[in-house]
């Protein structure tokens, strides 16, 4: 009846409150409750990073040479059942250097962080190229550091 | 028996009305709606990450994250892409120039573009050896417009540059060789400062009783011998150096000078063109009316994007005066660029002339449909001047521009009734009523003169929402950020009640239409302020503008 009522009484259909501040809800409380709330840039341990694999958490984070990138928009590649899903929530540096997407190139979160010391010059070059690709395409959300007592 | 009959009648009527309403909603409104609720709620692209004391970065929905903002006209130069500059724009305008005209405030007749080009070319030849030209007359006048065109061509091809002045300078500008003033009475008030310039041009005809030195000339005498010219030639430099030159200087009434590059100009033009949705793009039949103060000296920096974009499509341009705001001035205009005050004048004129029941019913039909997201011009007032009008751009200005453009180190505290905007604020309910009465879309734009060339934010072409009264009373909905800018809100120590986790804070922007302060002190202050809030990543804090990002991606500024 809303349209006919508006027509007869000259009133309007009012939209939802986009600010979230109307009425008694002065705190705009649901702004932070949403799963879409942006993540604060920060420090990740391999353990905390591993949750962002597109499955346990909707977001997909991948570490390359110590920097963590938000690759959620590349879900078709890095998400569950994607061709590169092994990289999601992990340090993908070795896999990218070797151009290998096998699970052996990715370390478990409770192992030490890969120092990449044994990479050959051409593998380092390949990693440089991938690193620049990630930096240009995806937002950097933080850095990957070893967790005391777990990775050190 | 009678009771039963009445009961059945009421029940049947109720079911009938309910059914009609349901069917109307289901099949008519849903199919005619311009914007779905999903589109309303996704007017911005929001970064997935934010820094600790700031909100996420917001971009217009048309500019995806990871892609560049709108930088220019994307012209090709061999295998490269160029942003373009004013000469590219003017060349394209002159290639399309046919019968399209410009109507100035101080002229009864329209002037053909070929004539404007002829005058501008003549002026450029005379002034080619000079540097900046101070323009202290409205660009809505023939003289101000033609001199601006000549100087903007010079800014690419030579050393001449336009310098828009809010008033006649009280102190000498080192690079200013030419001054354009309105009248001989203004000339008399120069008090000897005419010696600062190599050429002073007075827009009035020469008077016999005034004795002037050789370098002071009237507009008529300086234009003697000009010829109508339909062609304009320009070959861009291969190193793109023309695209990075200064396009225009603007000095405010509080003597703050800001420079805007060719990039500010072309990215604004591209952004304006892109803002029209599919099916409503600019065409050669469009005619833009620039109303009131927006063509005058202190605010004229903002109409250039729109004017040049319309001319680029072969359209016409007219400047209309504020006093009276007669509807007949808008006859034939398809686009109107005005301030809220001008719109109020028009509405007052419409209201005094029609109040029949039939009109009221049509108006109620239109407003009810608009609030459902369906555009209709069935409520349009019966004035021939409004028949062609399809979109009105309402310019809201940050009132305390002086504070923003001074880049103060100390951030002011937000007061509960801090009015950063003009007093003629339009609520969403009033805007809906205006849409119905004009039979036209209405886009609200937020401007910050002398800091950013062009709008900071604008509401969507299709946004007809009526917001809850609690939102209208506390906020101004500014819409999504322009496609050539990106924005964020930052935490300030002076306003701890604004919580960035709840998307509240002070506005910072970065992008391609932001000007650069010319004075050393202001530039230093701007760099310090930028470093304080964003670590020097090119963000420009807009001091005193506090707001919050809505769930729809639009900015809502506290009134």
UniProtKB/TrEMBL annotation, chain A:
Where is region (Disordered) located?
14-34
Q: Which InterPro entries match?
A: Cyt_B5-like_heme/steroid-bd, Cyt_B5-like_heme/steroid_sf, MAPR/NEUFC/NENF-like
List where this protein forms a coiled coil: none
GO terms, molecular function: heme binding
Question: Which parts of the sequence belong to the Cytochrome b5 heme-binding domain?
Answer: 44-145
Chain ranges passing through the membrane: none
Assigned GO CC terms: endomembrane system; membrane
Name a Pfam family for this protein: Cyt-b5
Q: Which family does it belong to?
A: Belongs to the cytochrome b5 family. MAPR subfamily.
Q: What is this protein called?
A: Cytochrome b5 heme-binding domain-containing protein
From TrEMBL, chain B:
Write out the transmembrane intervals.
6-24
What's the protein name? Answer: AMP-dependent synthetase/ligase domain-containing protein
Judging by the UniProt lineage, the source's domain of life is Eukaryota
Give the record's keywords alphabetically.
Answer: Membrane, Transmembrane, Transmembrane helix
Cite the source lineage. Answer: Eukaryota, Fungi, Dikarya, Ascomycota, Saccharomycotina
